[in-house]
Design brief:
Elements (H helix, E strand, L loop, with lengths): L1 H13 L7 H6 L1 H21 L12 H11 L2 H50 L13 H15 L6 H18 L3 H4 L2 H21 L3 H10 L13 H10 L4 H11 L4 H9 L5 H15 L1
GO cellular component, one term: WASH complex
Family: Belongs to the strumpellin family.
Pfam families: Strumpellin
Length: about 290
């Protein structure tokens, strides 16, 4: 299938050593989520259709459809897609857990660094700082002080609103750099450039949201394949014998299979039943036996 082939190409790129850096993940989260979403849709459709019967009552041309399916799909390629998708999901979850844990500190650090620079620029244009020969400019004093206050008031509760406010501040810092009194000072321009860099880092940081983890969990669900996955065990065994390094990918696949626990436990959690622990232990044991 064309979709599976293109997904494997994208997955191979993202999983290449050195690609999934912190900055790359922050700048390309939409593309990464789209990749695992498309891959999981392809996996789900292919796996669920893999048990389509040659003859289905009340359905014409079922045999033809089965032959078309067999001709257009490759079980070995499906296993490759499944392994690589599981690995990318695991890496994204791991990276986002780390980013979420550091989000508050990163956000506050960027605010402090930006405010310090803008406050210094406000003081600079008073003309009263030692070793500065600059004409006092009341407008710039007030503008930098006000901008520093705006930065200090930023929060990421509403990520859309925060992102827009930060982008407007970045544009404003770019425009003020065109003033003659600023354009001729390399030190001031350096401070403005550093301030914009910290604000840009805040734009990236504001996109680190718990909802992203929820999206990954939802699209990576593999509970529907709890039984059907056995049909592909021989391919997995052959793959491991041929290339033992595939065991690393199998770890991510088994973690993906753990989503089977979500199905029986969802309603039990909702009704706050005392059976939740025993049911979780039972299905955990089943997964361990399966592995």
């Amino acid at each position: 299938m064309h979709t599976s082939a293109s997904s494997i190409v994208s997955l191979t790129h993202f999983l290449t050593e050195g690609v999934l850096t912190e900055q790359y993940v922050l700048e390309n989260i939409d593309a990464l989520l789209d990749c695992i979403r498309t891959a999981n849709v392809t996996i789900r459709w292919t796996i669920l259709h893999s048990r389509m019967q040659e003859t289905i009552p009340m359905m014409n041309h079922s045999g033809d459809q089965r032959r078309v399916f067999d001709k257009g799909t490759d079980p070995d390629r499906l296993v490759t897609l499944l392994l690589q998708t599981s690995q990318l999901e695991w890496k994204l979850k791991h990276e986002f857990e780390r980013l979420l844990a550091a989000k508050e500190d990163r956000w506050q650090h960027c605010i402090n660094e930006t405010c310090d620079r803008l406050s210094e620029l406000s003081e600079y244009f008073t003309g009263e700082k030692p070793l500065t020969r600059v004409e006092r400019n009341e407008d710039l004093i007030k503008w930098f002080a006000d901008t520093s206050a705006k930065v200090a008031s930023l929060d990421y509760v509403n990520h859309v609103k925060a992102g827009r406010r930060i982008k407007r501040l970045i544009e404003a810092l770019g425009h003020v750099e065109q003033f003659d009194q600023i354009d001729t000072s390399l030190q001031v321009k350096a401070f403005l450039s550093e301030s914009r860099a910290y604000l840009t880092e805040m734009v990236r940081t504001v996109r680190v949201r718990p909802e992203v983890m929820g999206i990954i969990e939802a699209v990576s669900d593999l509970s529907y394949a709890w039984e059907i996955i056995n049909d592909f065990m021989s391919i997995l065994h052959t793959r491991v014998k041929r290339d033992p390094s595939c065991v690393i990918l199998l770890r991510a696949l088994f973690l993906k299979l753990a989503s089977i626990l979500d199905v029986p436990l969802t309603r039990i959690y909702q009704c706050k039943s005392s059976d939740v622990i025993s049911v979780a232990e039972y299905y955990s044991g089943e997964i361990v036996d399966y592995v």
